[in-house]
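Troubleshooting: if your tokenizer reports a length mismatch, compare your output against this known-good record of 744 residues.
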Amino acid sequence: MRKEILKIQGMHCASCAMTIQKAVSKMIGIKSAEVNFGTETLSAEYDETKIGHKDIEKAVKEVGYKLEIPEQEKPSMTMSHEEHLLEKDKTEREKELNSLKKKVIIGSIFSVIIFLGSFPEWFQFIPKILQNYFVLLILTAPVQFWVGSKFYRGLVVLFKYRTADMNTLISIGTLAAYFYSSAVTFFPGFFEKGGIMPKVYFDTSAIIITLILLGKYLEMLARGRASEAIKKLMKLGAKTARIIINGQEKEIPIEEVAAGQEILVKPGEKIPVDGEVLDSKSSVDESLVTGESMPVSKERGSKVIGSTINLSGMLRFKATKVGKDTLLSQIIKMVEQAQASKAPIQRLADLVSGYFVPAVIGIAALTFALWFFLGPTPALTFALVNFVAVLIIACPCALGLATPLAIMIGTGNAAQKGILIKDAESLEIANKIKAIILDKTGTLTQGKPDLTDIIVYGNFSEKEVLRLAASLERYSEHHLAKPIVEKAKRDNLELTEVKNFQAVSGKGVRGDLGIIGNRKLMEDSGISLVNIEKDIIKLEEEGKTAVILAVENRVVGILAVADTLKKEAREVIKSLREKGIEVWMITGDNERVARTIGQQLGIENIMAQVLPQDKAGKVKEIQKTGKFVAMVGDGINDAPALAQADLGIAMGEGTDIAMESAEITLMRGDLTLIPEIISLSKKTLRVIKQNLFWAFFYNSAFIPVAAGALYPFFGILLNPIFAAAAMAFSSLSVVLNSLRLKSA
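Known-good structure output:
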């Protein structure tokens, strides 16, 4: 199975997207297909053995649209792969804009002439020849059949697939006006009733087409700004890399860099790919990728991210991830997937749009029939005007743009702040969160604990306790093991190889040298803590974690480890509580240490002594109370809990596991990004609801007016030309409202 996102050209509304989605979904080999009108993309999962790009392209073409097949050629040395795609997209957009601009200008010129000629009683200076119906018919023809040619695919869709979209409404409405006017021109006597000469509506047909295209042109200009976030990310990529082969420097295109190669980066240059520093020191500006404003120090063993900027020293590193595996490429992919995905609120709008257009055609037909049989003289004229007005006023363009544009801008903005959102649904769920669980280590704390105290018992010295503890902890992956081992190395202690090493998850380790771990491990091993209880309590009341060392079933020492709290933690907790969110802290530490840290942070809800495998169960417990729960962890040992939560937020700082296990990944360990997610979600949902309200209100409220419901009472009819202008303005207003999120 293959999953990819493909670009589609020629869509005008949500109904267009639904038409393409239905056509592609019916194909053999397609597992799922989702078309997003806002991003103009098709997200498809399909069996490559049964179907390919050419087959999908054919299906899309049959319903009147164009699928862009990804190119396979390699970009040049002067342009990265991302920039190549960006340039191609820009060229296609400019080509379509230029085509639209040309048609709008020509349509406008003809429309003005036709309008002036259609009302000689208003414009008496107009030459008689322009008032002739045959001349007006000829002038309208290029507007109807060339300027408005793109709308006729709606008729193909109607007859071939028995479905309708915006193009169907416009093409039926304008063709009805044009052919009615043509019939009046050729057979005027047939239409005369009661001595009243029937009017022609060539001006209506021409001006509607021109106005709608003008709206599309302005809309496309504005929508170009909506995708700026992804464009900025793509532009970050380096074009070349300086590799070292046999001691010689060689500059090569970024696409030719292979994992394992040695790369040299001078001060002020971009780091081309992800890697690991070999034997140099420098500071790196990672703000463009992670949002971290301060430069980050790099030394031997440090990880570097492609597209960040080397500031000071010469950096020599080994490439670990290249091409599509680099962090920047993964970020771009995640942002594209998020923008192409659909939020639940959008699926509702799409469903309504799918039924809306056929319903409008039915209402328009009913309007025509009622006015034709029951309307005043000339009944046919009244019937036609109201029929066209209903079709034009109801075009669901604004409805199709309401959600995807807001999602597109919201997720793009988030990425620039260092917040990676996996899909649109996650952004919507963030708005509903009522409880948040924060893992202590690495989330609320710096995740870099220090060894603060060593208490010894019996005939053991501090150095001997430290040496034994470090020997046992050397192969442990627990975060408390690292400061003990590092302290032993700094003191140049010679560590002993441990036999029968066994790691006990969430408790400690065992080996032939002894046992080291928490209270629970000691209790399970039958080791008494009665004589040292007061020392453990004292350390725990200071917010330190006691790591107990036992040799031959007797405690010989306690090593106290403390992790400093993040400076912004308390303010963030306060901010979350002010938003009405219930805050919990979860930790493997014992109750006393957890309560001490909770008091420092202002957290009352504490879950202590929770093993990694039990964290998901704790999430379930809170979910059972009916609350939407967010879990914030480091994305590695918290993976099950992140997956269980309604919203998993990984403080993974860009790790692969963090991106996979959570719906949202924070590119840096800044807790202030958590309230930022919730605020962004609320703002995005507010804009979406505003867009949907006005789109639904506009379409629903004005259909009766267009149908002539006010005429019997107030003598008011909606001119189809004003209906077209209002429709164009409606779409543009949705785009402009969505663009407000760029400053959010």
